């Protein structure tokens, strides 16, 4: 019944919890098996096949492409040497295997002055050779010379790995680990990778694929000598068009409108454009739009311009003057509303934007903005990249920024910026109202009268918007702080927690949280500071930087206690409880959860009481106190069912099965976990199903139904592997190994326990690793491999010294009993503990209670 989740931002369902409740997953591969808190509850039909797609990310090929035959010929030689012609029927992996072990994948750097047509050439050529790369094409605009910050390689790697089928939760937090995973994933694939608008070799290097049959095409204004020297990149310097080719481009664009233009006039226009394709296309479009005007008059108008633009400089003053002149010429020809729209686009937080954001910054309707953008696209001042999505070339964006600063008053600029930022904030709030109706942060901020935020009918539409606007929302947070809109900046920070969590966007999450803290301090909002510190704590929690997470959550708690924010105080208590649970400081976690639940009861917030009780119940189960855990879960279940919170209900049923199983009430335990699985199937959520199946295997095994337990564990492991959650996959494998031991399939059990132990070791999960090693030792003992068994038991004992709770003590005693059992001995036992003879665990074993 299980199916694989699409790795790239699958659709949520039921609710969008943010690190509040124990037991749910973001498919994060480094978290502990019963310790992945919060999570986007993903929407996926049962039985759907694993997500597998060949990325085809190249933007559309540019129109009216002219010549560049010499450069295309050189590129063709390079790709021919690097890749054989692809067999369309062949498996891309099979094709790629022939290249493994050869030299690194070739890199080509297209360099040249701004506006010379690097991107146009790269895309034109890339579309022509796609069939030589059966594993697909990856593309990214690195924004190396944008007026905003360049795109960091960490962020690009997340996108590329998603596109290649790696789930968000399987992406490591560190750049080096992400790059290593990317090289591993691409090692068996023949890919074309286009890295557009790079700034430095450092930005490019982590994005080079691992297969020698792949090819990377980089465009940059800089020569990137480091790539040439270290990676052996081929550098192609793209010259400006010679006059005859420049004239040909002008004729190609204007032929249908201006057949009578004199050759000398076209040559003069080409000269004024300095042979730069960007300037030539804009000038040609201007000429084509005025077919009755003599070209000489247009040229005179082009020459008569004022010096409006000092932002950009090129190596050649002629080039800078040419681009500036052409931009000004086309801008002045626009109707006033379109001209205003163009310059106000310079105030948006990013060069790539959607139609509603353009309307918001201009204070217009969407219909008005669409008409104006159509004019700008026709004038080649704006690119349309997809339906409703637009982009400014970095040079044109710089020109728009300069123009709006020189044209609009400071107050008008502030009003326009605030309209755009408010649109992002309130649209994000509307998305949250669909994705997380229980977890919304109250904005306490009115929507400006000229701003119409988007509304969303369902989870899919809301999450699609988040996917399209993720980068812009981060940029908007930064822009709000930069322009003094601190009240918007910290609220945007609070609004972005959930999407950051699901996308595993640690860098963006920490960045926006820190911006939010500073903005809230400037805004004088203590509540905003607490929200931002909480966001930062959750980012560190997800990245397993637990000391920093605790510090942030304690700051949030102190602020909330100081300002009398009782609800926020209880939320912080819950967060600190989750930290204690993650660290297996169970008594500490219990205290935090009990304190939080008491405050929520005082406030009458039934849902939060139920969430805190669910977390407390897991803690009690871990402490070996299943009876009070079951009682807490019965109360929580009643609340979740009353509220219609399916995620909370399923989670409570999961823990209830665990508690009842520990109490020996196996029929009720099986009923509980079966009910949870019904919810997972009804909500079409394979993340839930996979996690809960592991408990089903436990309950079925306890009831003597080993074959059913094995099937449940195998299904769970398969789904978790497709999700990329190595920790939970390891837990499921361990459960499968236990069922195999019950069935007498000892050799298979050994292999399953070995794999589980390896995965837990990779994830750094000492508690789960100790259990897997104990299971492995028991399986080895069954085959008579006593020395190997004792070695694994000893490692398990060394791991257990880190824990002090009752379950750890019981496991320690049980293992020591096995080590002193004469049937398991080939040598005298050595129970020396790393903590020394005074450690109570070195005492003689006591009877198990």
From TrEMBL:
Residues 1-20, 86-106, 807-849 are annotated as: Disordered. Residues 807-820, 840-849 have a biased composition (Basic and acidic residues). One of its GO terms (molecular function) is ADP binding. InterPro entries: AAA+_ATPase (IPR003593), P-loop_NTPase (IPR027417), TPR-like_helical_dom_sf (IPR011990), TPR_rpt (IPR019734). Residues 104-242 form the AAA+ ATPase domain. SMART domains: AAA (SM00382), TPR (SM00028). Pfam families: TPR_10 (PF13374), TPR_12 (PF13424), TPR_7 (PF13176). PANTHER family: HTH-TYPE TRANSCRIPTIONAL REGULATOR RV0890C-RELATED (PTHR47691:SF3), REGULATOR-RELATED (PTHR47691). This is Tetratricopeptide repeat protein. It comes from Kitasatospora viridis. The lineage of its organism: Bacteria, Bacillati, Actinomycetota, Actinomycetes, Kitasatosporales.
């Amino acid at each position: 019944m299980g199916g694989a989740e699409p790795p790239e931002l699958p659709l949520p369902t039921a609710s969008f919890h943010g690190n509040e409740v124990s037991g749910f997953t973001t498919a994060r591969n480094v978290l502990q098996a019963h310790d992945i808190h919060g999570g986007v509850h993903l929407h996926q039909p049962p039985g759907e096949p694993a997500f597998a797609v060949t990325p085809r990310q190249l933007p559309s090929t540019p129109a009216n492409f002219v010549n560049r035959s010499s450069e295309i010929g050189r590129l063709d030689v390079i790709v021919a040497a690097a890749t054989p012609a692809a067999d369309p029927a062949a498996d891309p992996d099979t094709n790629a295997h022939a290249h493994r072990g050869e030299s690194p994948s070739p890199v080509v750097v297209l360099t040249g002055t701004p506006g010379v047509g690097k991107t146009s050439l790269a895309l034109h050529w890339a579309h022509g050779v796609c069939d030589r790369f059966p594993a697909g094409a990856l593309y990214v605009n690195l924004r190396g010379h944008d007026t905003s910050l360049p795109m960091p390689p960490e962020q690009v790697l997340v996108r590329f790995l998603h596109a290649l089928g790696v789930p968000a939760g399987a992406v490591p937090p560190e750049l080096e680990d992400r790059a290593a995973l990317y090289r591993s994933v691409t090692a068996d694939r023949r890919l074309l990778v286009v890295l557009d608008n790079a700034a430095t070799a450092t930005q490019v290097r982590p994005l080079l694929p691992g297969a020698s049959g792949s090819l990377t095409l980089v465009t940059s204004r800089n020569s990137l000598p480091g790539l040439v020297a270290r990676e052996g990149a081929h550098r192609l310097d793209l010259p400006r068009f010679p006059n005859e080719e420049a004239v040909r481009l002008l004729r190609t664009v204007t032929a249908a409108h201006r057949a009578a233009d004199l050759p000398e006039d076209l040559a003069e226009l080409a000269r004024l454009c300095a042979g730069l394709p960007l300037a030539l296309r804009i000038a040609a479009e201007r000429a084509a739009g005025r077919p009755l005007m003599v070209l000489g008059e247009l040229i005179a108008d082009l020459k008569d311009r004022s010096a409006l633009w000092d932002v950009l400089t090129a190596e050649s003053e002629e080039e800078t003057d040419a681009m500036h002149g052409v931009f000004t010429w086309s801008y002045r020809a626009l109707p006033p509303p379109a001209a205003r729209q163009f310059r106000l686009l310079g105030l948006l937080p990013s060069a790539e934007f959607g139609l509603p954001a353009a309307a918001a910054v201009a204070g217009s309707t969407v219909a008005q903005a669409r008409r104006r953008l159509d004019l700008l696209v026709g004038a080649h001042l704006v690119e349309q990249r997809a339906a409703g999505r637009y982009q400014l070339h970095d040079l044109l964006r710089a020109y728009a920024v300069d123009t709006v600063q020189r044209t609009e008053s400071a107050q008008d600029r502030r009003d326009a910026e605030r309209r755009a930022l408010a649109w992002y904030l309130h649209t994000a709030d509307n998305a949250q109202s669909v994705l997380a109706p229980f977890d919304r942060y109250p904005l306490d901020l009115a929507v400006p009268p000229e701003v119409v935020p988007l509304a969303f009918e369902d989870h899919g539409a809301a999450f699609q918007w988040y996917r399209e606007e993720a980068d812009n929302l981060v940029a908007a947070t930064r822009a709000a702080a930069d322009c003094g809109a601190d009240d918007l900046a910290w609220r945007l920070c609070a609004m972005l927690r959930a999407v950051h969590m699901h996308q595993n966007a640690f860098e963006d999450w920490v960045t926006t949280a820190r911006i939010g803290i500073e903005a809230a301090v400037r805004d004088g909002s203590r509540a905003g500071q607490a929200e931002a510190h909480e966001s930062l704590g959750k980012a560190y929690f997800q990245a397993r930087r637990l000391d920093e997470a605790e510090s942030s959550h304690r700051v949030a708690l102190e602020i909330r206690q100081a300002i009398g924010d009782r609800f926020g105080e209880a939320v912080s208590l819950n967060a600190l409880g989750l930290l204690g649970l993650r660290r297996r400081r169970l008594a500490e976690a219990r205290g935090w959860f009990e304190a939080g639940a008491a405050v929520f009861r005082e406030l009458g917030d039934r849902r939060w009481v139920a969430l805190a009780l669910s977390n407390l119940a897991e803690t009690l189960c871990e402490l070996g106190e299943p009876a009070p855990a079951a009682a807490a879960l019965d109360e929580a279940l009643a609340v979740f069912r009353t509220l219609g919170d399916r995620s909370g209900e399923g989670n409570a049923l999961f823990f209830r099965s665990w508690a009842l199983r520990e109490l020996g009430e196996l029929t009720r335990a099986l009923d509980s976990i079966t009910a949870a699985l019904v919810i997972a199937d009804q909500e079409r959520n394979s993340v839930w199903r996979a996690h809960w199946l592991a408990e089903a295997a436990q309950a079925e095994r306890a009831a003597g139904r080993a074959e059913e337990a094995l099937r449940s564990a195998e299904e769970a492991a398969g789904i978790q592997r497709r999700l990329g959650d190595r920790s939970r996959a390891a837990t499921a494998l361990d459960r499968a190994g236990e069922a195999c031991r019950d069935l007498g399939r000892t050799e298979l059990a050994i292999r399953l326990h070995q794999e589980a132990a390896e995965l837990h070791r990779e994830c750094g999960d000492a508690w789960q690793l100790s259990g897997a090693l104990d299971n492995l030792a028991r399986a080895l003992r069954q085959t008579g491999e006593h020395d190997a068994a004792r070695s694994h038991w000893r490692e398990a004992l060394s791991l257990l010294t880190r824990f002090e709770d009752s379950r750890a003590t019981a496991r320690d005693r049980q293992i020591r009993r096995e080590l002193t059992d004469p049937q398991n001995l080939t040598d005298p036992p050595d129970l020396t503990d790393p903590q020394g003879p005074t450690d109570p665990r070195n005492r003689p074993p006591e009877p198990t209670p």
